[in-house]
Amino acid sequence: MKLSELLNESPCDENIQKLLYDGLDYDGSSADLVMVLGSRKACDYRMPEAVRLYKVGKAPQMLLSGGQVQKTSLGEMAEWDSMKRVALSMGIPESDILIERWSKNTAENFMYSDELLKGYLPEGITIILVTTAYHMRRALCMAHKFMPKYDFIPCPVQKGSATKENWYKTEKGRLTVLDEWRKLSYYIRVGIFEDIEI
């Protein structure tokens, strides 16, 4: 089934589960780089998983992407800054951290990261993508659109109110996934990224 076909269906629980979570579990593969997308809670949710991947040898370098200033648990600062502070505090050498400082949304995460990696790492490298579980489908679609020369391995973080196991249990979780459904519908409709098989 194509992504657009699923989005034309009603956003019932089964379709939401298929759209946002099915087939996106981390498969344990190693890669050349771990890429972490910024958010207000990235330093709390996403960074511990990225650090774990680095420490168990899944990738030798880390790319932290996000220039939006947010109220993080470390204070008000740019996403990349909060993520870098966590990485350093958890023992990641600064020499193994790449920083993308300009992006303000998911599309820009990949547009600016693509520019950053040009001439630094060769085309065709494999990247483990770390973001919150409900955000992974849209993030991968953006990755394939704006960084098509790289292979991406999803590593969704199952924390917060909209995980694979709990999104349907609270109003907050349901609102989060319905918002994600609307965003994916919009991006497909206006052609921001290509239709894919689900």
TrEMBL record:
GO terms for cellular component: plasma membrane. GO terms for biological process: Gram-negative-bacterium-type cell wall biogenesis; peptidoglycan metabolic process. Pfam families: DUF218. Residues 32-181 form the DUF218 domain. This is DUF218 domain-containing protein.
